[in-house]
Design goal:
Rossmann fold, 6-stranded parallel beta sheet, alpha/beta, 2 domains, 18 helices
């Protein structure tokens, strides 16, 4: 029996809680000899795992190197890169799937026998463009990484068409799309009860303007409630937000749930509000996990006029689109909800659950890696 080609899935993230990377592991673990390199324990079913120290960051902090544009030095100095170089064997893997731009130079340097596929989770050069320091110092470094290393990747994918188009426009890199779709989950829509229950989960970051939700729910009618799951990314901001919401009885903050329980938890609600003010390029073009998790939970969606989300909401009849990204517009949409309309959205989500599942998306990765694997026979 021929030995399966070896595939290293490389990420500077905690792999067991990274839905996108876990989908790659699930897809490939039966087809190739899969190794992983990431923070934390090994995911289930892989042949071997290279654990990165939890404190080895994958983002630059070499201020002198950034200012003087010594970008090779900056990259070499990334703690995650140093840690990975110390544990990963060079020239041993047939293929590497590099997640995010900051792993791509390392993946190429490890000299896989057949090639590297880059999966870019953001449009890296504009990821935090709302921050002036980031624009001045980090963005040029990201542009350098793109210009220098993207041409060497065998193939590239990203999370939405808007971001893919930007990689093509700025770097001439043909870029496929694998959305952050959730795995198919069998379920049936639940009818709306006496209260319309809304859910919103988000990273607790100021640029996401979560205060819009507090404003929109002030003096909300009795029949409307909103639960918020807010991660403590910026603790001061999250504390401010909770203080603002203290006088709004219709808002409750709840703890995050494990990824495996997420769809079941969401199905207890009626509508997921995926409202992302376009404070930077990636938010403008976002098509996040939570959009697809709501579909698998068979609940409705309320989104702002974000292009990637608007297209799918309209195509499948999944919910409502606010006029703009203001709290007033969000309030108007929330307060106009009726059980009949929401029940219609839930039925539409049920019909869309298969076509919008991860299973229909990961075929793009499957084909890309198979094409690299085929190099073995052509060489």
């Amino acid at each position: 029996m021929t030995e399966l080609p070896s595939l290293l899935i490389l990420t500077f993230s905690p792999i067991r809680s990274d839905p996108r990377v876990l989908k790659q592991v699930e897809l490939f673990k039966e087809k190739y000899r899969v190794s992983t390199c990431a923070y934390g324990a090994a995911p289930d079913g892989v042949a071997e795992h290279f654990a990165l120290p939890e404190d080895s960051r994958g983002w630059p902090s070499d201020k002198v190197g950034l200012v003087s544009r010594q970008y090779t030095k900056v990259y070499d100095g990334l703690p995650a890169v140093k840690s990975a170089r110390a544990i990963l064997p060079k020239g041993r893997f047939d293929m590497i799937l590099a997640n995010d731009l900051n792993t791509l130079p390392l993946a190429l340097e490890l000299e896989p026998k057949l090639g590297v596929h880059a999966d870019l989770h953001e449009f890296a050069p504009r990821e935090k463009e709302d921050n002036l320091k980031w624009r001045l110092f980090i963005a040029p470094f990201m542009r350098w990484l793109c210009s220098r290393y993207l041409p060497a990747a065998s193939s590239v994918t990203t999370v939405s068409q808007g971001i893919a188009d930007e990689y093509v426009k700025d770097y001439g890199t043909p870029t496929g799309v694998v959305t952050n779709a959730a795995p198919f989950s069998a379920g049936t829509p639940r009818p709306v009860g006496e209260k319309v229950r809304l859910i919103h989960s988000a990273a607790g970051q100021r640029y996401r303007k979560l205060e819009n939700f507090v404003e929109a729910m002030k003096d909300a009618p009795e029949w409307l409630s909103l639960d918020m799951i807010v991660m403590p990314n910026e603790p001061d901001y999250v504390a401010e937000l909770k203080a603002q919401a203290a006088s709004v009885p219709s808002i409750t903050f709840r703890d995050p749930v494990p990824y495996k329980e997420l769809v079941a938890t969401l199905s207890e609600y009626d509508v997921s509000v995926v409202f992302l003010p376009p404070t930077n390029f990636n938010l403008k073009n976002a098509l996040p996990n939570k959009f697809f998790e709501a579909v698998q939970a068979r609940i409705g969606l309320i989104v702002g006029p974000s292009p990637a989300m608007v297209g799918l909401v309209r195509e499948y009849g999944l919910g409502a689109i606010t006029k703009d990204f203001s709290a007033a517009s969000l309030r108007e949409t929330l307060w106009s909800l009726t059980p009949e309309v929401i029940d219609g959205w839930k039925r539409a989500a049920d019909e869309a659950a298969r076509p919008l599942s991860a299973e229909s998306q990961v075929a793009v990765w499957d084909a890309a890696i198979a094409e690299i694997a085929a190099m073995q026979h052509s060489s």
